[in-house]
Design goal:
The chain is an all-alpha fold and 153 residues long. The chain has helices spanning 11-18, 28-85, 87-96, 132-137; strands at 107-108, 114-115.
Amino acid sequence: MTRTAGQMKGRAGRLARLMPSGPSTAARTPFVLLVVLLLAGGLISLLLLNSALNEGSFKLSELKRETTELTDEQQALQQDVDSYSEPDALERRARELGMVPGGNPAFLNPDGSVRGVPERATAAPGPASLPPAVSSATPSTTPITPPPTSSGR
């Protein structure tokens, strides 16, 4: 029993003609616009987040590569230090510098007394010991090796 705008009389008829009672497209436009803006904003934020993650991934792989290179360099340097620290290498370098093995050491006690009898260091006879003037004036081209020691067998 609803009447259309043409059937209403007076003031109610005029108002019904100004405001149609059918579905309105004007009310949907802001809602559709809001949904489109939210979707676009979400997609843009996902794109920015993905870009930031990719940048972090590239930086991480670069840092891993640099860490590997530095670890390799550190291991090479440690091998050099170990080779220079070996007793044979230290002895050979000391002989090249004209050093000789020391004798028996003497020790000072806390009260100032001397314990032990000190001995003077002398060069051991053999081809390995060169006079300091000769070893510093003419550099050796062949490595000097200490004479073999017997183990008592």
